[in-house]
Design brief:
With 398 residues, this protein is of the alpha+beta class. Helix content is 35%, strand content 22%. It contains twelve helices and 17 strands. The longest helix has 22 residues, at 281-302. It binds (2S)-amino(hydroxy)ethanoic acid (HGY) and manganese (II) ion (2 copies). Residues 118-120, 346-347 line the site of (2S)-amino(hydroxy)ethanoic acid.
Length: 398
């Protein structure tokens, strides 16, 4: 199977233009934004030129469908609020290039997908969570982004393009190529990572409500300050987690909104995101117990109320052994001595797709391990090496 690296790279750079942030190679292409929809329309055209049938499902996930049974390759093309040019996009464009190469080589049939809202503007890998049947569309439509817009409202911008759900049974398996988004391959000077398993995640919003008051005249001991409650909560969970977590466990408060968010007003309300990840479901559950326990204890002690939003999550998932073996054999052939097997600390649509078919993933290095930032980048030689390894694995599966 002969891929065309030049065409692959020029497609990647063309996709980068949709939502180009004007800072390095960064992109701002959140799900359902103008840039995201324009990028999907462009991808649909490229799928058509490659002999695939473009099809949007009700969430706005875009498929490029081969006739009959096929192996599915792809990822996502939406980005974080400040994203890199390769997170997700690499897997979609690599899939497109391999679909072309495989067609020219007489098979195997390859379909392509760009899942919607993998970056979770509204939830957690929302498009593939709905597609895989783990969340009903009408429930997903009620999810809101950090500014309070509902998914239903955002999705309506794509209404004229949307069609029915694609039946997962037409696909024999799923392969996703992605940047590592961590430091290990780059640090070791290796080119390829064959993923062994993907961590699980829990994510929810927590809200403290105290009392808004004057920042000058309200004595500290009389305050019911929502930010102070958040600060105490954060310090206490860090303490309580110490004998529960491992060096691979991560937890993040990435979004905080204070009300009314003014220098001279004691914040009466704080809403924040609480996200944690680990390879062990039991440990994720234990951390949830601690989070709820500490959040309520701080509320009691400080005279505030605390409420918990809907908790979203995915379980850890192991990659399929035979798909992994094809990737490892191809890595051995094309990246001999410069590849490793490794877990994924980042989430991927492959977790949801694994509900319906065997899945496996391939990583290429992230320079300085940076991702979810405009500085995200990968050497072109490593992008091409990853494409070769993926093509070799698909040829083996044919
Ligand atoms: O957060 C993640 O792991 C993914 O990049 N959305
Ligand atoms: Mn991604
Ligand atoms: Mn991401």
């Amino acid at each position: 199977m002969r891929t065309n690296p030049g065409r692959f790279l020029s497609d990647l750079h063309e996709l980068r233009q949709f939502g180009a942030a004007g800072v390095g190679k960064g992109v701002v292409r959140p799900a359902y934004s103008e840039a995201d929809i324009a990028a999907r329309v462009w991808l649909a055209q490229r799928f058509k030129e490659a002999g695939l049938t473009p099809h949007y499902d009700p969430m706005g996930t875009l498929f490029g469908l081969a006739d009959g049974p096929s192996i599915l390759l792809g990822s996502h093309s939406d980005s974080q609020p400040e994203g890199g040019w390769l997170d997700g996009a690499l897997g979609v464009v690599a899939a497109l290039e391999i679909a072309r190469a495989s067609k020219n080589a007489g098979g195997p049939a390859v379909s392509v997908v760009s899942f919607q809202d993998e970056e979770g503007r509204f939830g957690v890998t929302t498009g593939s969570t709905v597609w895989s049947g783990q969340l009903a569309l009408e429930d997903a439509d009620k999810l809101t982004d950090r500014d309070g817009m509902t998914l239903a409202e955002a999705r309506s911008a794509m209404q004229p393009l949307l069609g029915a759900f694609v039946d997962p049974s037409r696909f024999t398996g799923f392969l996703e190529m992605h940047i590592e988004q961590g430091p290990w391959l780059d640090e070791a000077g290796e080119s390829v990572g064959v993923v062994t398993d993907i961590v699980g995640i829990r994510d929810m919003r927590i809200t403290y409500v105290g009392e808004q008051n004057h920042a000058g005249t309200t004595p500290m001991h009389l305050r019911r300050d929502a930010f102070q409650a958040l600060g105490t909560f954060n310090a206490e969970i860090n303490e309580r987690f110490r004998n529960v977590v491992t060096p691979q466990t991560v937890w993040t408060i990435g979004h905080v909104k204070l009300y009314p968010d003014a220098h001279s007003i004691v914040p009466g309300k704080a809403t924040f995101s609480m996200q944690w990840r680990d390879g062990d479901s039991a440990r994720l559950g234990r951390m949830e117990e601690i989070i709820r326990e500490v959040a309520e204890a701080v509320a009691r002690e400080r005279g505030l109320t605390v409420s918990f939003g809907q908790m979203l999550g995915l379980e850890p998932v192991r990659m399929d052994a035979s798909l992994r073996a094809a990737l490892e054999a191809s890595a051995e052939e094309h990246a001999d001595g410069a590849w490793r097997s490794m877990p994924s600390g980042a989430l991927h649509d492959a977790t949801n797709v694994s509900k319906h078919m065997p899945v496996a993933m391939l990583f290429v290095p992230s320079i300085n391990g940076i991702s979810h930032a405009f500085e995200e980048d990968t050497d072109e030689a490593d992008l091409i090496k990853g494409l070769e390894v993926l093509a070799g694995a698909v040829a083996r599966l044919g």
